[in-house]
Write a structure and sequence with these properties.
Length: 327
């Protein structure tokens, strides 16, 4: 961290990944400002040493005020929920595409030294090869992936046209403490919340053929810090564990840390995302990144943190209007 600038802006710093990143930056001794509209987080989660501004990335005045005096930006704000993007594609586009444009404009005007854009593995769409490296074709099939890809394109354009040094992160399936159960769709937390309440674990698709790369939020933060310091401007980098886990393996792992019988139900009427989604992380490991949190350790910690009856997940995973994947 010694070569990083000393004043950072974290958009979405009250959100899931954002508040973990915020704490890591503060622990490293940086001055940190947060811009967040609190749509998915809480001001109560803000450490006292953080300079918190409640505002919206869709408001250029809010963005300009937050950017003032900062020399590095970690841009995490926006919509991170694929179902919401299906239900309200305009909201998703404005939050992710227009919001990112506003940040880039302000970063350019403010002579920011580094812009770290948090995109998503959703930009790849349905995998055509395995594991997925950064040269994989980009063909998102839900609005969320498309809006994140627009942000990527604008980051590259602002580098090529104006010289704004930006780097792109593509996290895979992020899990860990502090998720909002009303919004989070990654299976680790959802399966745990169902199971700890004695409810059925609902698998969207085929439990054996659907696999994912689950990466702990602490490792994602570690990857973002590496990219801020050593990522090549204009390049995109996967952030994952590099490990493949099927939904059945995940459910079995969840059950191994409790005294409850695993009750699993497959929803095979919805098969759009039954595929292997696992990251090649060699590009990022060459910069010094190394994931340290195994899925077994991460699940064990979440079991301890959630307790016996955590809040149940409330969001559904859908790919078409009117589709109900979970009940």
């Amino acid at each position: 961290m010694s070569r990083l600038p000393r004043k950072a802006l974290v958009t979405g710093g009250a959100g899931f990944i954002g508040h973990h990143l915020l704490r890591a930056l503060l622990e490293a001794g940086l001055d940190v400002r947060v811009l967040d509209n609190l749509s998915s987080g809480s001001e109560a989660s803000m450490p006292e040493r953080a300079d918190f501004l409640r505002g919206d990335i869709l408001n250029p005045q809010d963005v300009a005020a937050a950017m003032s005096g900062c020399d590095i930006v970690y841009h995490l704000a926006g919509n991170a929920n694929g179902t919401l993007s299906v239900e309200n594609p305009r909201l998703d586009f404005e939050a992710n595409a227009v919001g990112t444009f506003n940040l880039l404009e302000a970063a350019l005007a403010g002579e920011v030294r580094r812009f770290v854009y948090v995109s998503s593995a959703s930009v790849y769409g349905i995998p055509r090869r395995f594991p997925i490296d950064e040269e994989h074709p980009l063909s998102p099939f839900v609005p969320y992936g498309a809006s994140k890809l627009v942000g990527e394109r604008y980051c590259r354009t602002y580098l090529d046209t104006y010289g704004l040094s930006s780097v792109i992160a593509r996290p895979f399936c992020v899990y860990g403490p502090g998720e909002n159960p009303e919004l989070a769709l990654v299976e680790v937390g959802r399966y745990l919340r169902w199971h700890l309440n004695g409810a059925t674990i609902q698998v969207v698709g085929d439990a054996d053929r659907k696999t994912r790369d689950f990466v702990h939020v602490d490792d994602v933060v570690r990857g973002l810090l590496v990219l801020a310091e050593r990522g090549e401007a204009g390049e995109a980098y996967n952030i994952g564990s590099g490990e493949e886990t099927s939904m059945r393996q995940l459910a079995d792992l969840v059950g191994s840390f409790t005294n409850l019988v695993v009750d699993l139900a497959e929803i095979q009427e919805v098969m759009e995302d039954t595929y292997r989604l696992v990251a090649s992380i060699s590009k990022l490991t060459h910069l010094g990144y190394s994931p340290t949190m195994s899925l077994e350790r991460g699940v064990r910690q979440l079991v301890e943190e959630m307790g016996e009856s955590p809040a149940l997940p409330t969001g559904s995973t859908i790919f078409h209007p009117g589709q109900a994947a979970e009940e």
